[in-house]
Amino acid sequence: MDRFTRIFKLHRILTGHRVPVSIDKLQLELECSRASVNRVIREMRDYLDAPIEYDRELNGYRYAAQGNARFELPGFWLGPSELYALLVSHELLSRAAPGLLGDFIEPFRAHIEALLARQHFGSGELQRRVRILRMAGRPVDRDRFRVVVTGLTERKRLRIRYHGRSRDEETRREISPQRLIHYRDNWYLDAWDHGKRALRSLSIERIVEIRTLSKSAREISDDTLDRHFAAAYGIFSGTPRHTAVLRFTPERARWVADEQWHPQQHGTYLASNRYELRVPYSDPRELAMDILKYGPDAEVMKPASLRALVATRLAQAAAQYASEARPEKGDDTSTT
């Protein structure tokens, strides 16, 4: 354990104990000799102005009381585990949304990399060994994303022109941004729509035009947002109106049993080694897509409406393969 780590760890020990800590315990925690412990204490007193004092009555070290203030290490101090977490977070941000968040995190990049290099983590090895794959991510305009973030943090209303996919039409809206959501490699904005007088979840890449208004955003409580957006399945909002009962084959059960489909899901193994999963939902569209990807390894037991929807989609898919594919005009695909 190097000197930097011992200083950081000693600080954590002293701030985490309400009573003085004995020299024997410090030796054990810092994995060093009594002389090394005394040297670390002396360096913290001399160079960091740490108010470490020895309590003779309780035979231990502690931070001296400084009124209501608590001593903190000066500057930006992180231990090895925090540095590793910071490096991983750095990689996730850089690769999950390349270019999009660069303007926001760039001021910290050099400082982060200097800290990592100081602790010998700046060799670039993790960057070479970690792969983050984006699947079906849709590109977002950087300037519009910046306006969304600004309105969100400064609590200002936004005027947007929005092209919805479901109806393939544009609408003009005045919204109060509430939360920024990154879900399945895409960005969404939970907002209060003043025209519809209701909460809406908007795909950020579908915002065609956007500008910040001088009006203050309407505040919606966290509890209200959670009830509206987090209670149902997936990205679709609303109070759950149904519970899907799904059963998976024993082969697929080994994977599904370890997956979280919903925070309030309930799963159990059946006597046949099949796995039954119960999931609350409101809108069936996203849930149906997730069920369909398991093909014959999944069966909807309840409700009847969801079972019929999935059965219809499976029949439609099978019908496309009932006859030999015929190439369309201009299709240069050859068959053998």
Q: Care to give the gist of this entry?
A:
This protein is an alpha+beta fold and 336 residues long. It is 39% helix and 24% strand. Strand 9 and strand 10 form a beta hairpin.
Task: Describe it.
- The chain contains eleven helices and eleven strands.
- With 336 residues, it is an alpha+beta fold.
- The protein has a five-stranded antiparallel sheet, sandwiched between helices. The protein has a four-stranded antiparallel sheet with strand order 9-10-8-11. A two-stranded antiparallel ribbon has the order 1-2.
- A hairpin with a 5-residue loop joins strand 9 and strand 10 (275-281).
- Helix 4 (80-96) runs antiparallel to helix 5 (102-118).
- The longest helix has 17 residues, at 80-96.
- The N and C termini lie far apart (66 Å).
- The model has no long low-confidence stretch (mean pLDDT 83).
State the low-pLDDT regions, or none: none
Q: How does the helix and strand content classify structurally?
A: alpha+beta
Distance between the termini: 66 Å
Roughly what fraction of the amino acids lie in strands?
15-25%
| Number of continuous helical runs | 11
Oligomer: single chain
Order of helices and strands: HHHEEHHHHEEEEEHEHEEHEH
Lateral strand order in the biggest sheet: 6-5-4-3-7
* Rg (C-alpha, Å): 28 Å
Instruction: Name the overall outline.
Output: extended
Largest sheet: 5 strands, antiparallel
| Helix amount | 25-40%
Summarize model confidence as the mean pLDDT.
Answer: 83
Number of strands: 11
